[in-house]
Design goal:
Arc Repressor Mutant, subunit A; alpha/beta; five-stranded parallel beta sheet; 8 strands; Rossmann fold; 3 domains; single chain; binds magnesium ion; globular; binds adenosine-5'-triphosphate; three-stranded antiparallel beta sheet
Length: 391
């Protein structure tokens, strides 16, 4: 097979040729767009999932669909760590307004909204001046209180969108990086625009603890948003992720190869793409055979070990790495923190609590419930037991 044509896309935020298993999400999003267009209410969407399950590429796909429906979007915006709430929202507001102004005649409204955005960006602690031409509004979005100011900003944006008969879509990736206060402000502001039936929606994505963080920030967050956890693809969807990109070029797989790859990749989209890439590059003819799989298996595992798993492991300090290995030594998660402490060789769980915190901060682990921890990287426990066993 010609390497140049390789249709597989392992990586971060690389759009797959076949977006497998996401038809229900696309439909749900289309319903949201139609309902907001008609002045009805529909809950915004929050996607959660482990590393590499396809959160970012789903947001990218919904961005395309929104643009096709003539909505203004922020493009997919990643929240940094540490997060900067005001700068992130001010930038998104500018993108939406730029997007709307291209199709909009009411210049005055846009200018007013830009002035409000400028006030918003300047009002908070540690405000950074963004380059926004024109005036700065006073008395709107400039109180310094994130909840009030974001509500003001979203309402102004919603009014511009409504006046223009279009919707405005916020696409926020790595949303778990926002602190509790920012998440509370997001809940309040989106509730306010929905109460007024303004056509403003949010599609957010983050690691599994995003949902818990939102609920902790505002208990009504469970009713405000519609949540979906992305995980392994079902066997049928995993098969299409592997088989369809090659089929477009007339290349098939032996049935056993498909089954084995799905099992070894455990249905995770990123792993399926890695296998597909190496099989395509190695195989000389169709159908791709068990011999081809045997030949590339080591290459795939080495590549995952050094890139996907290794780079994440290296984010941790020596002591934190010890805690990760101790977790994996206990089998599959979630893990009781007391048992992790024992496996680590610590007296009690307090002795590892600062490592627990810093590993959560680095997004390497998360806490599904009090007293429990789990990896954010799929199959990380297998990797650690094989490559980084407890010393
Ligand atoms: N539905 C899908 N079908 C096939 N391949 C997919 C699908 N979703 C994602 N992929 C592939 O999986 C990989 C990871 O996708 P993506 O970067 O969107 O994951 P993510 O959940 O955002 O990960 P992270 O948490 O690390 O940011 C990419 O190589 C992408 O091409
Ligand atoms: Mg991502």
């Amino acid at each position: 097979m010609n390497k140049r044509d390789n249709p597989y896309t392992p990586g971060a935020g690389r759009k797959p040729r076949t977006l497998a298993g996401r038809d229900p999400d696309v439909e749900q999003f289309q319903t949201l767009v139609e309902r907001l267009n008609s002045g009805s209410y529909e809950r915004s969407l929050i996607y959660t999932g482990l590393r590499g399950v396809g959160k970012t590429v789903l947001l990218m796909e919904l961005d395309v669909l929104a643009s096709e429906a003539s909505w203004a979007t922020t493009d997919v915006q990643e929240v940094g760590s540490p997060a900067d709430f005001r700068v992130t929202f001010a930038r998104m507001a500018i993108r939406l307004l730029t997007n709307m102004s291209a199709r909009h005649r009411a210049r005055e409204r846009i200018e007013r909204a830009l002035a409000v955005t400028k006030a918003f960006s300047l009002a908070g602690p540690g405000a950074v001046e963004l380059r926004i031409d024109g005036e700065t509004a006073t008395g709107v979005a400039d109180s310094g209180n994130s909840e009030h100011d974001l509500t003001d900003l979203l309402e102004v944006l919603g009014e511009v969108a409504a006046a223009n008969n279009m919707g405005a879509l916020f696409l926020i990736d790595e949303m778990q990086n926002f602190d509790g206060g920012s998440l509370a402000a997001i809940c309040i502001a989106f509730q306010a625009v929905s109460r007024r039936s303004l056509p403003v929606a949010l599609v957010g994505a983050g690691l599994p603890d995003l949902r818990v963080r939102l609920l902790t920030a505002k208990p009504y967050a469970d009713r405000l948003f519609s949540y979906r956890e992305l995980g392994r693809l079902s066997p049928v969807d995993a098969r299409s992720a592997l088989v369809v990109p090659a089929a477009v070029f007339g290349v098939d797989f032996e049935a056993r190869v498909v089954e084995q790859v799905i099992a070894e990749a455990a249905g995770y989209p990123y792993f399926l793409q890695e296998y597909g890439l190496e099989l395509w590059n190695y195989a000389e003819e169709s159908p791709i055979s068990e011999g081809d799989l045997r030949a590339i298996r080591g290459v795939v595992r080495d590549s995952l070990a050094s890139s996907f798993f290794g780079t994440r492991f290296n984010l941790a300090t020596d002591a934190e790495q010890g805690v990760l290995s101790a977790m994996a030594s206990l089998g599959t998660g979630p893990y009781r923190i007391g048992e992790v402490a024992t496996a680590f060789g610590a007296k009690d769980q307090r002795a590892i609590s600062s490592y627990r915190e810093s590993l959560i901060e680095k997004d390497l682990i998360w806490s599904p419930r009090r007293g429990l921890v789990e990896f954010t990287v799929p199959l990380f426990d297998d990797y650690l037991r094989e490559h980084r066993p407890v010393q």
